[in-house]
Amino acid sequence: MTQAILREILDYAHRANPYPLYEELRKTPVLHEADGPYVVSKYYDIQSLLHDPRVSSDARNLKSPAADPLAADAQEETALPPSFLRLDPPEHDRLRRMTNRPFGPPHSPRRVYDMHGELKDIVSGLIDGIDNPDRIDLVDQVSYPFPVTVICRVLGVPREDESRFHTWADTIAAGLDPAPDADREERDKIVHNARTELGMYLAGLIEERRKKPGDDMLSELASSHGPDGAMTTMEVLSTAALLLIAGHETTVNLITNGMLTLLRNPDVLGRLREDPKLSVPIVEELLRFEPPVQLVPQRTTLADIEVRGVTIPKGASLWLVLASGNRDPDRFDHPDRFDPERGDIQHLGFGSGIHSCFGAPLARLEAQLALSELARRLENPRLLEDPPPYRQNAVLRGPRHLPIACDGIRP
Ligand code: HEM
């Protein structure tokens, strides 16, 4: 019975609406099947495990990787060394601190804020480029190119190379999908090749930036010598790859899920059109209601941990279902209602604890700008398909296309 729920969640047939399944899943807050992962689905349990130092993000601590559907992905890390997403303290903290120096407070408090104008120009340019208002694919025309362009600019990837990143990032992100499929071996090979190609490309770029630094993050990561010393070339490489992929495959879904939700809630869309500042609470509620990262599958226990009477043994694989915690009625009133006015939106959309999303300020700003500009400029927008076709990925979940139409594009 319980086993069937997990399989159903990963099954593509439920991609458009997994939330009734999460409701079912929460009836067994710590679900464990045969030698599979321990799946945790209630808000406070997830929150506490995300802060628990006995929980590791390092896949090398997994006792029996073969039992975990994501083990092959962890082994793929050999093509690039593990990024700080997959490391524990103290290595994680050192690398995260060093990466933060050119990105956020206290050393670069205005970095994201100062990009406001450039970001707005990029999204406006994409909306200007919509040539047929009768059929717009929001994913291909706005939500995908926008964050891809932004993260490439932040890092300093030359514009002419941006399209190569789409392919690599797509392939690597698809490898994060735990859905069992027959072509696992073939897919692993493709993911491995993509990681290798991305690694080789970035190594060349790092070399160039060391010789001739610019004001981009890659230059700063490659050349900075703060109190933590300097990053090795391999560390710069895996950090840059992490930022690129994390910046590619998540924000696209926040923007697309956002527009889909707004078109299903036209009153909220109307209010946003009148008041762009509403994009701030709307984006927070979206991160709760339709989180782009549905579950965090790469955790391992470093000791036996008891949760609600169940002992999760040392070395077990742990899946934390953020999207389920976000809809937990023991935490949020009327959790299935999209309500940007709820005062309390402490969602799990960016995770929590030491691994909480590094790019959150950038992702928030991108989504706020994209949604407020779309609301302002698209005249009478409407959905052409509901539900739209989804990507295969159950972890990084979002529509593959969002076909919409409108009566025209306002200046
Ligand atoms: C809406 C967009 C985004 C969402 C929903 C999101 C979500 C998340 C989540 C849930 C985690 C925690 C993973 C874990 O606990 O294992 C995370 C970590 C991370 N995210 Fe994001 N992310 C987004 C955008 C971005 C962007 C734009 C960047 C890069 C600029 C980024 C960089 C990172 C990094 C580097 C980590 C690892 C942090 C660590 O291990 O200390 N993310 N993100």
How would you portray this structure in words?
With 411 residues, the chain is α+β, with helices and mostly antiparallel strands. The protein has a single domain, classed as Cytochrome P450 (Cytochrome p450), CATH 1.10.630.10. The protein is 46% helix and 9% strand. The chain has 17 helices and 12 strands. A hairpin with a 2-residue loop joins strand 6 (305-307) and strand 7 (310-312). The longest helix is centred in the middle third of the chain and has 28 residues, at 184-211. The protein is globular, with a radius of gyration of 21 Å. Mean pLDDT is 90; it is low at 70-78. GO terms for molecular function: heme binding; iron ion binding; monooxygenase activity; oxidoreductase activity, acting on paired donors, with incorporation or reduction of molecular oxygen. It comes from Streptomyces albiflavescens.
Task: Provide keyphrases for this structure.
single chain, five-stranded mixed β-sheet, three-stranded antiparallel β-sheet, Cytochrome p450, alpha+beta, iron ion binding, binds protoporphyrin IX containing FE, 12 strands, 411 residues
Structural class assignment: alpha+beta
| Gyration radius, rounded | 21 Å
Specify the CATH class. Answer: Mainly Alpha
Q: Percent range for helical residues?
A: 40-55%
Give the helix tally. 17
* CATH architecture term: Orthogonal Bundle
Could you give the order of strands across the largest sheet? 1-2-8-5-3
Sheet having the most strands: 5 strands, mixed
How does the overall form come out from the CA principal axes? Answer: globular
* Helix-strand string: HHEEHEHHHEHHHHHHHHHEEEEHHEEEE
Strand % is: 5-15%
- Fourth-tier CATH superfamily name: Cytochrome P450
Separation, N- and C-terminal Cα atoms: 55 Å
Protein name: Cytochrome P450
InterPro entries: Cyt_P450 (IPR001128), Cyt_P450_B (IPR002397), Cyt_P450_CS (IPR017972), Cyt_P450_sf (IPR036396)
Keywords: Heme, Iron, Metal-binding, Monooxygenase, Oxidoreductase
Pfam family, one: p450
